## 1
Amino acid sequence: MGVESNVENSTETLLEYSSPRKTAMFLFICAEAVIFGSLFATYFVMLHHLGDGPGPKEFFKFKEMILPTILLLSSSLTWYLAEKTLHVREKGKTLFFIGLTALLALGFLSLEMIEFLKNIGDGYTLGRSPFISSYYLLVGLHGCHVLFGILWMALLLVHVKTKGSTVANHGRFVSFSIYWHFVDSVWVFIFLLLYALGQFL
Amino acid sequence: MKKIVGIWGSCLLLLSGCSAIQNMDVLNPAGSQAAEQYSLIKLSMYIMLIVMVTVVVLFVRFVHKYRARPGFTPEKHQENRNKKLELTWTILPFVLLLILAVPMVKSVFGEEKQDNTGAMKVKVTASEYWWKFEYPEEGIVTSQELHLPKGKRVVIELHSKDVIHSFWVPQLGGKQDLIPGRTNKMALTPEKVGTYQGKCGEFCGAGHSFMRFLVKVDSQQDYQQWVNQMKKENTSSKLSAQESEGQNVFKNNCLSCHATSGVASANQGKEGPNLAGFGDRERVAGFMPNTEKNVLKWLKDPKKVKPGTEMPKAKGLSKDDYAALSAYLKALEK
Amino acid sequence: MSFFNTQIKFASDIVAANISIIVILVAAVIYISLAKKWKVIWSLIRTMDHRKIGILYIAWGFIFFLRAGLDAMLMRTQLAFPNFHFWVFQGDKYDQVMTTHGTLMIFFVAMPFLIGLMNIAVPLQIGARDIAFPFFNSLSMWLFVIGGLLINMSFVMGGAPSTGWTSYVPLAVGKDIVGNGTAFYDMGVQVSGIGTIMTSINMITTILKHRAPGMGFMKIPLFTWSALITSILILFAFPVLSAALLILLFDNQFGTQIFSGEHGNPVLWQHLFWAFGHPEVYIVILPAFGVFSQVISTFASKRIFGYSSMVLSMLAIGFLSFMVWIHHMFTVGLGAFANVVFAITSMLIAVPTGIKIFNWLFTIRGGSVRFTTAMLYSLAFIPSFVIGGVTGVMQAVVPADYQYHDSYFVVAHLHYVMVGGTVFGAFSGFYYWWPKMFGYLLNDKIGKWQAWTFIIGFHMTFLPMHLSGLQGMPRRTFTYLPEDGLFEFNFISTMGAYLMAFSVLLFIWNVFYSYQKKERWGVADPWDGRTMDWAVPSPSSHIRWPYLPVVRDLENLWYAKEHGDGTLPFSQKEEKRIVVEKPTIIPLLLSGGFFTISFGLIFAVPLITVAGFMGTLLLMAWRSITYERSIDLYTSAQLEEAIRREEE
């Protein structure tokens, strides 16, 4: 019976270890995509259920969403760097890039919170109209994913700090990067289909 | 083996029971829509019977012939694929389905294309757990009993006040849902004079079982007479002492929700079912025979009789008050 | 009594329910203590063994089966006579029992029975050491248990869901809710749904990544194929339900009005629900198909007929199942075009299903049929399911469906496919794999009595329902009038239901009886099996196969029997990193976290919800940090050594 450090850290074991994880994570993303797809569909149906609330053109402030979009998208890049540096065993750099990614995500999240608070201040509360409710559900669920990602990164920081570049840590990085790139791409869809398209509806 | 006999037995029972089955509501149409649906049901039943019989015959034969028993040796050459057979049972079902699908498509689009000019209009509004019937062309309103003339196409507009219900008169035609915030339409053409059972076909809560109504199909003449009667304002001159006592009770307790006149304008803002001609109705509360006993039972504790109903218990009424109220309701005749 | 602002009235039925809960719990505790089984229980709840997790799935599923069956008895008794008043089961009490019956039977009986069988058989059939992620496997199982407990608890905690297992809005968010019924439904199904999605991911990964060397796609046994396709359906169908339930939760608890209210859209719920709901029908039938394929081929002593068309037809069914959901909504008024298109796709499903039926029939042809209990169920399935299938096609005929829709005809149809397909399949699978689960066989004589009573009771119950539907009986009604002409049909149904209940009791007796006798204990291959699941000892051990078996044929064990002495050849490859997870209590604790979250949401106590979230996240972090300590790593040689030591 062996313990982790005694096992040969060869490419073969790495692949063997992370390949089912990759598959599973990819499948998980499929499920997530269906959830978000259903909520997008709900949103588009609710475009016809404005009640006495505002329409998308009035409601969405496109320009205010450009900065958070940039923050979140660049976090994908910094995450890529974190993964790269893990492979070449530069622990310090890996830690730095995980932290940076988390910070960018945190920035995005705070800007989104500000947007939510502003909306509520304008009287656009959760139950104002079916349209606004569907917006909150979709964007809110995405926000929860970002928050979960930040907590996950905090955990990864601990793992890298204590264990360095082990087989298990490689597996963890594989899982998280699939998750994080997915969360980013959902935002791209939200940004394009809600905020950008909303200007023309 | 016993099992096979059992299954065949039940199939035979089904076939021999056909005469009894013919009297079943869905299989005994009294309107042209129900008749068309019935013809499709028959067609599909015949096709499906072919499938059933094929499977059961093969099943019985194979299970019997290849049962393991002393002295039985299975065939040496075991067949695991057979292109011809597999193609047969892939293609044949397509053919059967085609035979079924073509008349279906025809029927669906045929009904869609029907000409509704000159058709009569009725607006149905469902609430928990009763039915309101409005005749916009005649300006009258009734509830629980829908009167229709024989042989005339009726376009029914379906609305719901609270949850989803479904309008179903098995002998006249299939269901259509009544959905809040949405207007559905369906058409019925009754072909036979008679009284038909109507039901709510979509689960709508505690009182769903009792959300029933009747459809009375009359000859053109009788129908017109009923309409004329409904258009008259009710007069209370002929009431007996007890009945006018009941009228007072009614005014104090019931009038805020129930109108006693069938004229549309008198029904504005009334939340409960219209009671014009209540004395002539067959049922009280939509499902009990309209007897004095049942009326009293209903009035004294509506929620016990019909779970989930909105109708409240009247407060502080004496036994005499109830009797008077019941007598007054009975006097509401055409 | 007020419980977190929810009124609980102690009516006679609630008191009876509470007393029976207490009696059952106390009896269980006493039994376990007397039999000194606490250690067994402790190891069982921490287990990472796919076989034991499968057993737990089935055991909990069976407990919920008894509860939902009891509900069915209550309903059938209430419906035995026209205008009948049985105890309190009229009005919304009946609705509660009816909803619990449907929700439990579909989500918490049919699914765990089949997922349990998958857990037990799939790794053995494909030559895998375990499911890909045992930890998540255990967590999935506990989440399903928690969901089921939530639904079960609701009855004594202010009111069970009462709006049907379809939970149509606006009914489900309006004043018709009893207690916190809809919230219980919402969270119960949501939590177990999360578990089900995880299982599907686990199952797909296992089948894709952990097949023994040599097992190409066309050498995968049919039960595993059905598990794979079912899991794919779950993966794409259940998230739709999750999203719909999330919206329902907000509509119900947080005042949004997406499905309801003045401006909402009640039809959207139906679209989302049935976009999930129709694949769900195939999710619970495909694994049963898989069981029938294995059982019929084993007991006809013949290779399955038309293997590749069996696989293709399952794929076709899976694919089509996503394109038929509108056939549940023909009466909504979506227009002639939509109705016709979905009617035709619905009819098309009959083709692959028919192919499967004929393939089973021709598997029997030329074989040698042994009538064991498992085979009896599989054979009874064929005509029963054909009845359910043809009534399904009849309902695809749109204008005719205007008549059938939401009548007892539909009740008959769905029970013919769900009981005649899924439950027959589950029982068939239990009798078939029982030795692999527990090491002994279920008594065949009692088994046959049980099967016959169940099959006869089943037809007695549901055949008359076709007729009551045609006579105009709407479903989900708690009574009918004497003049409706429905008494005879309903009375026969009720008698049939009692017979089925008797049969279920026989099954329980059989389990205890056979446990005492332990017939043919430990026989690895009691049925003259054909696939690899019969090549490992009974019951299957958790650590096995230091060197993986080599797959040469679809029926790998049969091939070895024909071309040798019946032992499998093993791979020579020395593996360096075989992971075996140690038992842990964390999955159970995590499901407790989900329970807390749900409890807080149901009773609208934000503090409890937040605490639940914190606890859940902390446990997840704890698991992640201790991961390296919670696994054992072996090389092939070390594993062989460990197995030898265990055997001694």
## 2
Amino acid sequence: MAHVAPPAGAPASGDAARKRGLVGYLLLAPAGLWLSLFFIVPMISLISTSLYDPSGSLETGYQMTGHVQNYATVLQEYDSQLLRSFLYAGLATFFCMLLGFPLAYAIAFKAGKWKNLLLVAVIAPFFTSFLIRTLAWQLILSDQGWVTQTFNALYLTDLFAALGLTEQGSLLYSPLAVVTGLTYNFLPFMVLPLYASLEKIDPRLHEAGADLYASPFTTFRKVTLPLALPGLVAGTLLTFIPAAGDFINAQLLGNTQTTMIGTVIQKLFDGGSYPEASALSVVLMVIIVVLVLFYIRRAGTEDLV
Amino acid sequence: MTQPGDVQDPPQAAEGGSDLVLQGVTKRFGDFVAVDDLDLTVPQGAFFALLGPSGCGKTTTLRMVAGLEVPTVGTIHIGGQDISHLKPYKRPVNTVFQSYALFPHLTIFENVAFGLRRQKKSDVERQVDEMLELVELTPMASRKPGQLSGGQQQRVALARALINRPQVLLLDEPLGALDLKLRRQMQIELKRIQTEVGITFVHVTHDQEEAMTMADTVAVMNAGIIEQMGAPKELYEHPRTTFAANFLGQSNLVRGTVGGGDGSNVTIDAHGARLVCPRDRAPAGISEVWVGIRPEKVFLAGAGTETADGSNLMRGGVVTDVSFIGVSTQYLTRLPWGQELMIFEQNSGARESFRVGDPVDLHWLPEHTFLLDAAQDASAGVEIEGED
């Protein structure tokens, strides 16, 4: 039909295209302005701060000396906290996956009329503040609490202590408590994208798998899992990245031996050591970006529909 | 396929080949009876169609054969082996699903190879290549299902099932999502492939034309039971229930009373007209009947025209509607007792067509007449056919 249109229509449609382009820019403008003001500018400021001479202070002011040694210093000084952060974040992500996949699967395929209610239940914790929910875990895991008592009675606390996960006879203020808190806090970020992916899978594909000689497990491995991969990748990223930088859980549920990098950065800023704090922030960011790029490559999301 | 001489074969299997046999199969969903005490034998190598309106239980029957539903009561055998409670992935049966259910994340090649890979078959590459050749999709092997047209996806679904050489191939409304022209083409294609591979096809459809074009045996299903089963021609020419008469094509049903007859014919009084019907086309021992005649078997003549001796004749009709549809003209004619009958007439040009209001007589050959028990609902199976 298009080729029958009179040539007089051409300039008009050109105008329309230009108008559409303009509307696109206008729609982008608020977010673009916001990002450049509150992301790009602070980022430049952060990177330049990380290169200040650390001998200065807030009172005397800092000298911009291109002090790259800041990076070496923080890497040497805080390498164990960095490692621990990624270990804890990795563990929390793993447990979120372990808990979240069956949950998302059940909501997507088995919940029937309970689907919406269950989804609300997944999001419900967000109605309370992050801080309060984490503080609640202090009560749950406290030495007098029934959880610790029960675990004690079952000798599980002894087992955890023997494995170095907790102190003898208690659960709180331990690596176990920190990872538990992280898992709890970031679980919805795993469940929701996973659910979104699983929900789109046509249940008849499971029947087709069964019809084509695939056992339920094989059908899961060859059909469900590959189709859920985009959700799984999104879920792990949404869990791992904030968990790696989190400082609330380590601070409220951990001890001095469980300090994560977020806590270190926060303490350095509080203590006025701006160059080190900035350098450490940049290190954390770079490592996460590299890990994520590597991970997305490996997950092969470009293969997905 | 099993050789008749194989020693390990149970004797029953050797006799029955790989016949699909359903015995007393009932499926209930809560209070709803989807399939009611169904007995059915599909001979090996047959192209069998289950025809019926939506909700008649045909898809449920198919799913029970596939193993996707478990019968509430009854057994299903293939070649003497009881498969009623076998898991779907252990049955020698494959399905072409309605709207295909292709794996969207796999290429066409891998979709077709799926079944073979699960069975750890060797020589997968060659077999898939051959199968893609058969369905003429070789150039599409590395594409994803989303990049294919409906007709191509349909052929992938067929190839994916067929490559496993099942003893029975199940097709659930396989052409339902295609447009009319493509459907015609695929009907011929499916029939060709079935003849070529010789596998038993069980085909579920609500499209009577599709069922008649492809299948060598059609079972008309309604409300969980099989109303009538037979070759398409037999079903069409001699329906035994009002449902079959109306669902498979269209029928004129006129109320009448059997009033005697001789050895080979029965005579019927229908609103004063004396009609004749061969005895083998009439149910025995029933006097209140529906006299049935297909619209294309009825001839129209101007009122009072002499007709051949022995024809069934009904006088006093008035044309109430004329639809010209190219190859034929469809008339509605009102008879003196108020009923309207349908007549299809070829546009052979032998005579001017009638107009609305013309007085006409209707006549047809006695051997085209069929009788049905008047206890049945004359409108059973009407209208449902058009729904899609």
